[in-house]
Design goal:
single chain, alpha/beta, Rossmann fold, seven-stranded mixed sheet, four-stranded mixed sheet, 11 helices
Length: about 350
């Protein structure tokens, strides 16, 4: 993935241009956001999605809300508006805390510029962190290739590629680095219903020329059990202090299957995905989305109902994988085995 024109978000003066992910994979559409209300809608409707990207987009939303002399209450209102858009991804929480602290330390007449500067800083930090995640994670894929002499069969879930970040991605960053280093990789891509973010992963991999196969979510266990997966590599929306990890619903089932089969299960996420205010996964808020996402299916020509409109639906956006099922974590600082996480976190700059 040497073509780093693949950015999901571009700042243009006092606006940002995003890639509308609700139109993928059938149509590539960009949208210009020029006010905090636009940003709020983009995040809530998942035109922008992925924990790192949500936080950075929200930071730009705060900048858009501030006038030339932004009072404290305006800053707080903007931060609170962004915080309410999606509850599970902790990157949003960290980004808003960072904006709040920076802006309240700034003079009123400098706050608008400070907001844009802080959002820009987060943008470039994300690019560098994700590239570093890829550099660390590719060593795991290289080890498998050198041991087997065969293409590395990676299974992933949801989309944790460059579409979910500013660039490179988290779980897919090692795959892209493998391509650069001529390490053959094949990816099992689960569809990730009901939002079908797996189709976004397939779209990314197609553009990069990486071999991949789309599977129904329920096929994952059989593939793992039958020895057709060398490792599972997923992203995260929030990681509790003990390592319990919230990711797109369905991740837990893959972790169970991988654990039973002795297949490594790795979580790739930047340091700011850790939330030490959550002791365990039980403390992570899980977003429940509209039931119509399950009652309907989306296609190139629109949506179609597959269940009665009054059918009762439970639609959690995420589930929590216990740390006991996770082999380890890949972040911008390196690779940490799950049983060494507590020691590692003592030196990590997270809140």
């Amino acid at each position: 993935m040497s073509d780093q024109t693949l950015f999901t978000l571009i700042r243009e003066g006092d606006t940002i241009t995003i890639l509308d992910q609700t139109r993928l994979p059938f149509e590539t559409v960009t949208r210009t956001l020029d006010c905090i209300e636009d940003v709020e809608t983009a995040i809530k409707t998942m035109q922008v999605r992925g924990a790192p990207l949500i936080g950075i987009t929200a930071a730009y939303g705060v900048a858009m809300a501030l006038g030339e002399a932004a009072c404290d209450s305006l800053v707080v209102d903007a931060v609170d508006t962004m915080l309410a858009t999606r509850p599970t991804a902790v990157n949003l929480k960290h980004a808003m805390r960072r904006m709040h602290q920076r802006l309240l330390r700034s003079r009123l007449d400098q706050r608008q510029n400070a907001a844009w500067q802080e959002a820009d800083a987060m943008f470039y930090e994300d690019v560098n962190a994700n590239r570093a995640i890829g550099q660390h994670g590719v060593t795991l894929l290289k080890e498998i290739y050198e041991r087997t002499g065969k293409p590395v069969r990676v299974m992933t879930h949801c989309n944790a590629g460059w579409l979910a970040t500013v660039a490179w991605g988290t779980a897919l960053a090692p795959v892209y680095l493998a391509l650069e280093q001529n390490i053959p990789v094949e990816v099992w891509v689960s569809e990730t219903r009901p939002r079908n973010q797996g189709l976004l992963t397939a779209w990314e991999l197609s553009r990069a020329g990486i071999p991949h196969t789309l599977i129904a979510d329920n096929a994952a266990g059989a593939l793992i059990a039958n020895g057709q997966v060398d490792c599972v590599l997923v992203g995260a929306d929030r990681i509790a202090a003990n390592g319990d990890t919230a990711n797109k619903v369905g991740t837990y089932l893959k972790a169970l299957a991988a654990h039973a089969a002795g297949v490594p299960f790795w979580v790739a996420a930047p340091i700011n995905t850790f939330d030490t205010s959550c002791d365990t996964g039980k403390d992570i808020p899980i977003e429940e989305r509209d039931g119509d996402e399950v009652r309907t299916v989306q296609g190139e020509n629109g949506s179609a109902h597959i269940a009665d409109t009054d059918m009762r639906v439970f639609n959690p956006a995420f589930d929590v994988t216990p740390a006991s099922l996770i082999t380890g974590f890949i972040n911008e600082r390196g690779i940490v085995l799950a049983d060494k996480l507590e020691e590692h976190m003592e030196h990590a700059e997270v809140v």
